[in-house]
Amino acid sequence: MNYKESFFERINREMSVFNYEQSLRFPKDETITIDLHCHDKNSSEPDEIVGRLLNIPETWLPSEDLLGTLKKHNCDTFTITNHNNARSCYEMQDKGYDILSAAEFSCTVPDYNGKIHVLAYGFTPAQEEKLLKFRHDVYKFQSFALENNLPTIWAHPLYHYQENAQLPMEFFDKMSLVFERFEVINGQRDTWQNLLVKKWVESMGINTLEKYEKKFGIKASDYCRNPYRKGMFGGSDSHMGIFAGLTGTRLYVRDLKDKLKTNSRSSLAHAALLDGDSAPFGGYNNTEKMTVSFLDYFCQIVMNMKDPGLLRLLLHKGDVQDKLLSFMLINGFSELQRHKLTVNFLTLFHQCLKGEAPGFAKKLMVTKDYKDIFTEAASMADVRKKNPEKMAESFDKSIEEIHRTLFNLMFSRLDTKLKGINLKGDDALKSAEDFISTLELPGHIRKMFEGKSKNGKNGISSINAPELLDGLTFPFLASSVISAANYASSRVMYKSRGMLNEFSEKLDDLRFPKKMLWLSDTFEDGNGVSMSLRHMLDEIKERNLPIDILVCSDTVKPEDHLIVVKPAAVFTPPFYKDQPIRVPNIMDVHKQFREGEYDRILCSTEGPMGLVSIYLKRAYSVPAYFFVHTDWITFARSALNFSDPAMNRLRRILRGFYRSYDGVLVLNKEQKKWFSGPDMEFKKTEVKLTSHWVDEKFKKSAATKKEMFGISNDRNVLLYVGRISDEKGVNELPFIYSRVKEEFPDIQIVIAGKDPEEDKLKALMPDAKFLGWVDHNALPDIYSAADMLILPSRFDTFGNVIVEAFSCGCPVVSYNTKGPRDIIENEKSGYLVNTKEKMAEAVISHFKKEKNIAAMKAGALNRAKDFTADSIIGKLLKDTGLA
């Protein structure tokens, strides 16, 4: 079998080659090594509005600690690039350190209303004041820097800030005239973004730049010392100090040894930056470094944050959404600070990330449940001390293992508590309506940890929260901090994914692969959704489509294009015992999405996987679609008998859930109309009509009634296939069967299926034949031997059994509802009716018109041809952007 290099393998290989080539550019004894982009405690004013609302700095790292890490990581020349100030540089210069003054300025590109970061070096305090003044116009900023011999670097060019819009590609064309130095390896950005910048800089030939000069009416020489020579540089962009110095730049200084006799390293670095002889270095990275940095940052917020005050929140600049998010974060971090065990753990975690292993006394105090967590955290300190080059990879594995231990511990304890708590009596969730009515999150997170309110309702349910949460708080809070760090790192890394895709198109290289992850809560449950997914998986494998299906299960085995993650917990709702809820560890799915190189999502179920798909959509800024299989509104009204208030609440919950997606795929025209109407408010272009097909084995066979049902071949057979449950309408079968028998006493009803109502139906229809659960491979012969399929369900969104029956030449009688009415051609391939009386009449009429029976069978076979895998999959690929 031919091996195909994956996208990540390719870009890591190219980055490795680039690093090797750069390492050979200059003699080692004539280079100085410097991290041109790193931060410490004086990066006190975050660029992000939420950080300013919370009144927290970007880091609490002391300057001395940063310089110590840089030196340990083999830097021999130093600078500190805090946001919009060089205080740390001046302070360390006053203490006798040789530091190149520098800062990372937040600059505005006025004609595009874009915000970018520009690194500037070698300025004085007076020049810094001028730079701060000019930073609101990058053209004036760059002109001033050029006039004063201040080298500048455009930091992480593909990560920038603009309000409510994506910067156009011509923006980058113009900036290629304004800058001559570019940060092509940023230690916090992923390899894909860094390589895109590198290839872009390499594409800036003289002819291209002269063309841009004519297009924009500006001269590169007005902003650049060497306007047609573009330099590449690197910096760690480290805020926590963990990875400082592992990414940086080697600057070429001819006759370095001699020059060091009369010049400081900082002055030589300044001169080398102006000359532009540089060789960036740094390893591969996805989100690992940023995840570690965010995790350390969150730990320090818990350790150091003070209440910023409600008045600050209200009066500070920022929109309502930013202020609401900030208010929620204040609540969340305040709750973390209240929990001593969690604070101690996060403090320990921070110390281990710094390389400070816990002492022997602490080890003795750790309880058995947390021994593995403690050991894993301590190993991180050892890695930082002994093998810093492997920190990102090693820390990533340790964090994943700690999160898994915490997550599993939480759900193990929760399962034990749910079994122990008396869920009967007043506290029981006796029905789905009870659950919907009590499903709520409190306005203040502290309410979740308090006892019941006077009316017995306190948020999520009326269960005693402190009793339930006792022993769960630490694993819940600690695992939540890790999950938040993973989410934040992916969110920050890929928030400009649309622009990155457009940039790769511009370069005609490094296009991220188009590949979809299809999430589902059900695969082995034997229902219509799982059968459809099984058919889809077969076609995906046959056609080698860029789609993988991911399910959560203890029993399903992985296959090609089928990923299986183990559930952290399995719960069975008391009001719906036929469908267990399997809860995955969200980080397992997160990892699968990242390593699988997916760029879009499709989800089929509204359970835990639905929530996970929304998490992934927001974390990775990818399009996400939902495949609607179930009409929950009709189901709740007809099968669960929801009250009007409960129906309204369910509708709002569904609207909030579905509106989280970029589009929905629906199985019938009525659903399409409903989703684009006032209830769901989707645009018509966001609602796509799709359908199902059946396996090729469903075709007309020569099976006889005697072989399949043990009856005479001249008797008429009425067939039901599906779950024997009330929501499928099976309790109407006795009336219909009884009425038909009045006209055709010899007619035989056959039931293929099982479940709750089976015993009841056997009592009401003692002469019916019950086949039990039938293997799917046996169904074609059963359909072929039957004369008519009866479908008494009123809320099937499609009706796979209809297409199965049609494919075997078996006509169908069904209620005239959404789904069936889009498949059945009335009185051509079957019958559409509105009541059980009319259903009985249709069956009677069908068997009385013997001459039409053959035509009806032929009509069924003909209609089945409209539901083919080729046409349906082709449209699915187009609707999800994979075509």
Strand content: 5-15%
CATH class of the domain at 34-285: Alpha Beta
What is the CATH topology descriptor of the domain at 34-285? TIM Barrel
Oligomer: single chain
Terminal CA distance reads 26 Å
Total E-strand runs: 26
- Low-pLDDT runs of 5+ residues are 422-428, 453-466
CATH architecture of the domain at 34-285: Alpha-Beta Barrel
Main beta sheet, described? 7 strands, parallel
Short description:
The protein has 883 residues and is α/β, with parallel strands linked by helices. The chain is 47% helix and 13% strand.
What does this structure look like?
The protein has 883 residues and is α/β, with parallel strands linked by helices. Among the domains are: 34-285, TIM Barrel, CATH 3.20.20; 513-689, Rossmann fold (3-Layer(aba) Sandwich), CATH 3.40.50; 705-867, Rossmann fold, CATH 3.40.50. The chain is 47% helix and 13% strand. It contains 37 helices and 26 strands. A 7-stranded parallel β-sheet has the order 14-13-12-17-18-19-20, with helices on both faces. It has a 6-stranded parallel β-sheet with strand order 23-22-21-24-25-26, with helices on both faces. Strand 2 (78-79), helix 4 (87-94) and strand 3 (99-100) form a beta-alpha-beta unit. Helix 12 packs across helix 21 (473-494) and helix 15 (340-353) crosses helix 21 (473-494). The longest helix is centred in the middle third of the chain and has 30 residues, at 391-420. The radius of gyration is 33 Å and the shape is elongated. The model is unreliable at 422-428 and 453-466 (pLDDT under 50).
